[in-house]
Structures are given as C-alpha cells and as structure tokens.
Design brief:
By secondary structure, the protein is of the alpha+beta class. It contains four helices and six strands. Helices cover 34% and strands 27% of the residues. A six-stranded antiparallel β-sheet has the order 3-2-1-6-5-4, with helices on both faces. Helix 1 (4-12) packs parallel to helix 4 (130-147) and helix 2 runs antiparallel to helix 4 (130-147). The protein starts with a helix and ends in a 5-residue tail after the last helix. The structure holds methionine sulfoxide.
C-alpha cells in the first residue's frame, strides 16, 4: 500500500535539490512502494504538450502527449485527476504497453497552475482505489509546492 508520508517528508528535505532530482526521486519511491505500480512516470507541461520527464517501467514511445489526448492529456484539459479501472473502456486512452489494464493520473499543481501529471499504469484491472488517489494527491501537492516556484 502506498504511504505518502515518508515520501513527502523525504521530498520536503530536498528543498535545495535540482527539480530534476526531485522528480526522479518521486518516481523511484512511488515505483518501489507498490507491486501494482508497473509503470510510473511524471510528465511536465510545456505549452500544450506533456513531456515525459522521468519514468520506471517498460520503455515507451509516448514521450510527448498533447493536452486533450490520452488519459493524461484529458486530465489536464479537464483540470481533474483520473482513475481508470479499465483502460479498454476509454476511447481516448493511449496504450503504452499491451499489458496495461488500469491507470491513474494525478495532476501536479502549484496554486491554480498545472505543472504536470503523475501517471501510473498497472497490469492489474482496477488496481487503484481511494487510498491510492488520496496518497498520490498528497505526493502531487508536495511536488507542486516544491517545483512550482522553480518551474517558470
Ligand atoms: N496511457 C497514457 C499514455 C502514457 S502511457 O501510459 C506511458 C494516456 O492515455 O495518456
């Protein structure tokens, strides 16, 4: 079970670290905390593109996703987190791996500005519950707080 507390504490001690390192650390820690988290990535928003910054899991061609496309781009366009229990039921879903069955996308924001998303794919159907949503939101909020002032 993902527990945000230890990770947010660790991230909050990285106030002097480069943003790249903070993003990489978050991906690494999330990936190692949950067996269901087969692919963990963070995309950062640049104009109307989500650009893959760091990930762990199978390599993907989806390194750039336009706002409004895929679950990630739709989350940004609609300004809300998305928990997709069955990716095959979503017509705008973009496949990163044929094994993926469910996906969760959580917005990273600073104040009202969207900085990017945490994107997690699972090979398990309906892998993510309310606990994941809540813990990932805490992590995303901490990332937003740390990265916001430095990503201008
Ligand atoms: N499934 C995502 C694309 C990124 S991969 O999961 C790595 C989407 O639909 O936006």
């Amino acid at each position: 079970m993902l527990n945000a507390e230890k990770l947010t504490d660790e991230l909050l001690q990285m106030t002097d670290a480069q943003p790249d390192l903070i993003v990489q650390r978050a991906v690494q820690r999330i990936h190692e905390q949950g067996a269901r988290y087969d692919w963990v990535g963070i995309y950062l928003l640049s104009g109307d593109l989500l650009v893959l910054h760091s990930y762990l899991g199978l390599a993907t061609d989806l390194t750039r996703i336009r706002v409004g496309e895929g679950v990630c781009g739709m989350a940004v366009a609609e300004g809300r987190d998305m928990n997709v229990p069955d990716v095959e039921a979503v017509d705008y879903y973009l496949a990163c791996s044929a094994e993926t069955r469910s996906e969760i996308v959580v917005l990273i924001r600073h104040d009202e500005r969207i900085l990017g998303v945490i994107d997690i794919d699972s090979d398990t159907p309906a892998a993510f519950g309310e606990d994941d949503e809540r813990e990932l939101r805490r992590i995303a909020d901490t990332l937003g707080e740390l990265l916001g002032p430095r990503l201008r």
